[in-house]
Amino acid sequence: MSNSFSKDNLEKIFVNIPTPFTDQKPGTSGLRKSTQQFQTPHYLESFIEAIFQTLPGVHNGTLVLGGDGRYGNRKAIDVILRMAAAHGFSKVITTVDGILSTPAASHLIRIHDAVGGIILSASHNSGGLEGDFGVKLNSSNGGPAPESLTDEIYSKTLDLSKYRILKAQNININQPGSFNISQMLVNVIDGVEDYIELMHDIFDLDKISLLLKQDFPIAFDALNAVTGPYAKRLFEDLLGAPLGTVRNGIPLEDFGGCHPDPNLTYASQLAELLLKGSSYCFGAACDGDGDRNMILGKGCFVNPSDSLAILTANSHLVPAYKSGLAGVARSMPTSSAVDLVAKGLGISCYETPTGWKFFGNLLDSSQITICGEESFGTGSHHVREKDGLWAVLFWLQILSEKRCSVADLLSEHWNKYGRNYYSRHDYESIDSEIAHNIYTRVESMLPSLINKSLCKSFITVADNFSYTDPVDNSVTPGQGLRILLSDGSRIILRLSGTGTKGATLRVYLERYVSNTGNLHQDPQVALKDLIQSIDSLAEISQRTGMNAPTVIT
Ligand code: G1P
Ligand code: ZN
Questions:
Q1: Pocket flag, ligand 1, residue 388 (CB < 6 Å)
Q2: Which of the four, 17, 95, 357, 526, has the lowest number of CB atoms within 10 Å?
Q3: 225 CA to middle of ligand 2, Å?
Q4: Are residues 252 and 161 in the same domain?
């Protein structure tokens, strides 16, 4: 690898920041802003300086570094390597061309005892010059940095006056190898291998391979983002699926103009393929950085909340989980389908706020094995992030054992547990003030709603969700407005922490129908009363001027 730096190049310099940036408050998953904002001189450097001044163990520590390949990835890696060397890291592990999925990064942090990892991604947000960029910090356990740390980083950004960096230029990471930048060793590895090995340890890949070779065609859409190289290696090279199984498999800086979010709106090509009668038996897609997944069967879509419940109910079919689960967890807005399975299995089910970081303590203390969110995220104790391809393999493992269709598996599940009809309605890019007014108005109404009737039922709980972590007793208040009804139905309102334009209001709707009821309705029909009630209570269409949500899941 041709990296040689002259002495002059390795000089450590301090660069002055004319005025500190005041908008670097990390949200649900790191600092996410427009690509253009990240192009502002000193913007990226300021945030990285704040991280390096705050993260424990930087001096002589190991850092994992990579990203989803979006515009700005390579340049940011160059800057971060030079800043890491100037801050005294002893080693940085990065990948060829800096391509590294979020779950694979989590795994690398764990196996290399790194003090943390920096993942350059705005996850499922669009990329390119007109899109978004992001910086996520993960801690030494491999999971997203806890709020206490990100709060400290944010305070640091407010009074920074300079940052430390080396002058070195043109750092080459286009092939595996090692080199030094000053005293710091840089290991450039293939980012895929270790991850595939981990999947080998969890699943019976031979059995999945047998399924794929026996008239069970699948389609995987990487949406021109990070999972392409992982999925090709896995499905086409290792498991023997035909070439072409992986669609849009080359990571592109602007994701080919598409929005790398695996849902029915943004992965519509794949959805059409599966829902409108092609020969495929199974379809799946992952998001920009590879932590989300969408699962489809022939003619059917699997709601992520149902997916979590079905994976839990069938976990004994996966070698790594066959001896049982310690417990499960779901984020508060996720449907209660998994709660019913946990009850049946006699294991604990925890309800956490939105965002993967809240699962960390439960996973680290072995109180749970599997966890998930309604937002297409599922994972287990194998890493400390949600894991898109892991979920796809989990589904394929179940299907390889049960030899049934996805639709049959769904029906079997509902026939046993009943169905939690569920939908999320997103109102995107609303004027921030209007969105905050809707939210605070409903919040102020909550105490008066208790015992009022709604949708032929009555309201038993109306509050703003507050979470007490069962491991460290820390309290996180203000995590979303809950309206719970006596028949088990739930309506939740939240403001997104990951959007970059205006505000996004999320409305989550759930209604339970027992296994003797109608299990095969369109969810929007089954939830119609709840949808209308919350719209008139919160005056969403009236105040936003939108007569329909931007995205319905
Ligand atoms: C969204 C999802 C949330 C997920 C996060 C990061 O956050 O709703 O479940 O953890 O992205 O992938 P939100 O925009 O709702 O704050
Ligand atoms: Zn993501």
A1: no
A2: 17
A3: 11
A4: no
Distance separating alpha carbons of residues 308 and 335, to the nearest angstrom: 10
Domain membership of residue 210 (yes or no) is yes
- Report whether residue 123 contacts ligand 1, using a CB cutoff of 6 Å: yes
Give the Å distance between the CA of 27 and the centre of ligand 1: 9
Question: Does some domain include residue 275?
Answer: yes
Mean pLDDT, the chain, integer: 95
Please report which confidence band the pLDDT of residue 525 belongs to, taking 50, 70 and 90 as the band edges. Answer: very high
Model confidence at 2: pLDDT above 70: no
* Distance between Cα 363 and ligand 2 center (Å): 19
Min mean pLDDT across 38-42, 160-164, 457-461, 499-503 is at: 499-503
What values do phi and psi take at 90, rounded to 5?
-90, -25
Q: For the segment 76-108, what is each residue's pLDDT rounded down to a tens digit?
A: 999 999 999 999 999 999 999 999 999 999 999
Instruction: Give yes or no for residue 375 CB within 6 A of ligand 1.
Output: yes
Which of 111, 11, 114 is closest to 65 using CA atoms?
114
Q: Is 502:476 a contact under the CB 8 Å cutoff?
A: no
Helix (H, G, I), strand (E, B) or coil at 483: strand
Q: Are residues 93 and 220 in the same domain?
A: no
Q: Which atom of ligand 1 is nearest to 292's Cα?
A: 12
62 close to ligand 1 (CB < 6 Angstrom): no
Q: Give the number of the atom of ligand 1 that is nearest the alpha carbon of residue 506.
A: 15
User: Closest-lying ligand to the alpha carbon of 374?
Assistant: 1
Q: Is residue 2 part of a domain?
A: no
Instruction: Kindly state the tokens that stand for 323.
Output: 């001896």
Residues labelled catalytic? 123
Question: Do 383 and 462 reside in the same domain of the chain?
Answer: no
Q: How far is the CA of 237 from the centre of ligand 2 (A)?
A: 25
What number is the average pLDDT over the span 341-368? 96
Clarify whether residues 214 and 256 are in a common domain: yes
**353 and 204 together in one domain:** yes
Would you say the CB of residue 28 lies under 6 angstroms from ligand 1? yes
Q: Which residues of 425-456 are buried (b: 16+ CB within 10 A; e: fewer)?
A: bbbbebeeebbeebbeebeeebeebeeeebbe
Q: Which atom of ligand 1 is nearest to the CA of 27?
A: 16
Number of domains in the chain: 3
Q: What is the pLDDT of residues 221-237, one digit of tens each?
A: 999 999 999 999 999 99
The residue segments making up the domain with residue 455 are: 419-552
| Statement to judge: residues 278 and 133 lie in one domain | no
Helix or strand (DSSP H, E) at 523 = helix 523-526
Q: What is the spatial distance between Cα 483 and Cα 418, in angstroms, rounded to a whole number?
A: 22
> 298 and 443: one domain?
no
* Closest-CA residue to 166 (of 23, 48, 24, 21): 48
The rounded Å distance from CA 210 to ligand 1 centre is 36
Cα gap 392→239, rounded to integer Å: 13
Asked whether the beta carbons of 424 and 494 are under 8 A apart, the reply is: no
Ligand 1: does its nearest atom lie under 6 Å from the Cβ of 500? no
